Amino acid sequence: NAGVMQNPRHLVRRRGQEARLRCSPMKGHSHVYWYRQLPEEGLKFMVYLQKENIIDESGMPKERFSAEFPKEGPSILRIQQVVRGDSAAYFCASSSGQGPQETQYFGPGTRLLVL
Amino acid sequence: TQLLEQSPQFLSIQEGENLTVYCNSSSVFSSLQWYRQEPGEGPVLLVTVVTGGEVKKLKRLTFQFGDARKDSSLHITAAQPGDTGLYLCAGAETGGYQKVTFGTGTKLQVIP
After folding, report:
1. B105 closest CB neighbour out of A41, A98, A108
2. Could you point out which of A39, A91, A103, B33 has its C-alpha 20 to 30 Å from the C-alpha of A1?
3. Strands (E) located in chain B
4. Torsion angle, alpha carbons of B32, A62, A106, A16, to 10
5. Is A22 exposed, middle or buried, given 0-12, 13-18 or 19+ CB atoms closer than 10 A?
6. Is A93 in contact with A75 (CB distance < 8 Å)?
7. Residue range A60-71: average pLDDT?
8. Min CA distance, B55 vs chain A (Å)?
9. pLDDT interval class at A1 (50, 70, 90)
């Protein structure tokens, strides 16, 4: 999992600001997943992307949240007009394929704090 | 939405003791993973089990996948302080891409 990069590692925003979280998958991986984790809880699936395509965004709130994975560059999770309830750790994972047995490798996460 | 429940939620034991963590669901999974997560870090994959009834061993850790592929257990023998962390099971849905559902987590503390 050391190959998945996320930045920033910590992000502080005031209510109403925008938060941009970046994820660079492991080399050779074209599948990216975003998860959210609240303190002392498991991870909740948000969105699954392949290059230039959103495959499944069923876990992502329909308002204020968006994700992209452009042909070049990292995947971006964008949260507009942040609220205190958005405070959480956001993890990205990547895999080389999409089969049920493909291992997902996780990044170190971005801890978002909304004041 | 498939749910994975882990028990116990919290566990504090002395070094050298044995423990078992359970992961249960009413749903069938094509595979199940166990992760360990330390504070401030992302989950690190420990094992993937695929076949119903499968048992895998990783040093002092023994993982078992239920026959019906709905549940799993993690047994640690002679726990060490280095085993301290949050243990997460995660099930991949049958037939689809790898949409993974994470369990509720078990927070383990091993006291020296």
Report:
1. A41
2. A39
3. 5-7, 10-14, 19-24, 29-37, 44-49, 55-58, 61-65, 71-76, 85-93, 100-102, 106-111
4. -150
5. middle
6. no
7. 94
8. 16
9. very low
A73: left (phi over 0), alpha (psi -120 to 50) or beta: left
For range A60-80, the mean pLDDT? 95
Cβ contact (<8 Å) for A103 and B100? Answer: no
Do residue A42 and residue B104 have CB atoms under 8 angstroms apart? yes
User: B42 contacts in A (CB within 8 Å)?
Assistant: 1, 4, 91, 93, 106-109
Tokens 């498991």 map to which residue? Answer: A42
The contacts of residue A61 (CB under 8 Å, 6+ apart) are none
* Contact indicator for B73, B8 with CB cutoff of 8 Å: no
Contact B61, B75 (CB under 8 A): yes
The answer to whether B112 contacts chain A (CB < 8 Å) is no
Residue A65 structure tokens: 């949240």
AA identity, residue B19:
L
Q: What is the mean pLDDT of each run of 10 residues along chain B (112 residues)?
A: 85 97 91 91 91 94 94 96 94 72 93 96
* Nearest by Cα to B32 from B60, B9, B55: B55
